[in-house]
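Sequence in, structure out. Go.
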Amino acid sequence: MRKLHRQSGVALLTLALLTSTSQAASVSGVITGPDRKPFKGAFVQVRNAAMHMTVSVLSDKDGKYLAPDLPDGEYRLSIRAPGFKGDPKSGVKLTGVQGATADFELKKGEVRWADLSIQQGEALMPEHKGKSMLFGLCMACHGFQSRMAAVSRDEDGWRDRVNYMRKDMGFFVSDPRFGLTDQRAEEVVQYLTTLFSEDSILPKSPTELPNFKSVLLNFGDEASRLVYVEYEMPGGNRMPWSAKPDKDGKFWIPYYGKANKIGRLDPTTGKIDEFPVPFTGTAAIHSAVPGPDGAVWLTEQGSDRLGRWDPKTEQITEYKDNVRKHTVAVDQKTGMVWSTGGLTRFDPKMETFDPVKAVPTSYGISLDKEGNAWFAELLTNGKIGRVNAKTGEVKKWALPTVTGRPRRIVYNDADDTVWFAEFDAGKLGRFNPKDESIQEYQLPGPQATPYALAVDRDGMVWYSSEKMDVVGRLDPASGRVTEYPTPRPENSMRDFFLDDKGRIWFGSPPNDRVGYFYLRKS
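Output:
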């Protein structure tokens, strides 16, 4: 047996059915490195092909891992640990409360450029005229990993891809003020050709660079408690922006880019139904939120339209005014529909828009118990604010960090406070409406870039780091931040939503997956 292990480079020491004390099956085991010592920080990814579902968990300091609460079915186990590799295990069958054990011995592999976070890539890649535009604009919707580093193209090939973005995402990347002008586009083409072509100046692996170790992140033992559950999209290039639960336990998914659909996920089966919008250009659906009557409201950033999915006909009707559309929020009592971009309130009964002229630019939005709309302005001197739903009065508050650029905002019903994420400053902020005080919390890391935001049942504040491929949890009482790695590079989580079980749901657009995460108790 030991001789076989050395030949294969990876070991399945045991694969036996066990009796579990939990209410669902699990897979557990130990991971060891090439030195046969416990290996910390490897993701074990347990995939159920029938459900298009993958559960990812991290090995702890003793090399142990546990993937809990797995539905009945057949699974395939694989390892993700950049710089190391291990043979997958197929045909692992779980039934009832039975579990399985699978131990891995890793051998040396290679770190690829596609394994890095955006922050690591930006730190390691050479300077060039096109670099700031590539990382500052072209990576606003996805990173370099899956669409650049994972392929090789010549100059004409990269020019074709850049022109595709200018044409099909023109509403976003072709703004003459900050977008891809002809000159800027050509600079990006030249930079991409320098990096990702047969004549690339990059070493095959980033580990060959002398400063590679300086960009590595370390995670504490707590990281092994976070469990990720992901569902695959029915096809490629859906770019799912988020997943919002409805009252029936289904989850609604907006597809960004040219997919021009919204999806409805049944997490018990993994099945996703899809519904197209009438618009035939690039709809870039940014948000999809169920209303109190079962309808689903969506915003099309590409067409600046508001949409309504009808639960009876399963068709989508679009409404258009002359205001930009971004993120939607629905008052679950009155049915009123708010949307950001230019902040607007839509009356579904009258089918009329009421723009909030005092808020021409807004990003995140959250409604409080009275139906008032809290918003964030994603500007260099951006503020947070509130629209009184009854009077229409607008009030804004400046932030202590003027250049913070607040993005997502969440009203916390439990204590009537407002949380917001300051993307550029790398901070989370808490606003107390009672005394109008603001407290900021500095997040760790060289580019914390907090984006998605949620407050869980225990009052802990969760955020995603856009550039660092990190999910973080802030304890407001102590100010302590715990960081957790994500199971795939280029996570690009845009919005968090809690379900009735307290799990936090997300979308990962570049990876074409939606899912949730939670902390297991032990």
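Check: The first helix runs from residue 2 to 8. The radius of gyration is 23 Å.
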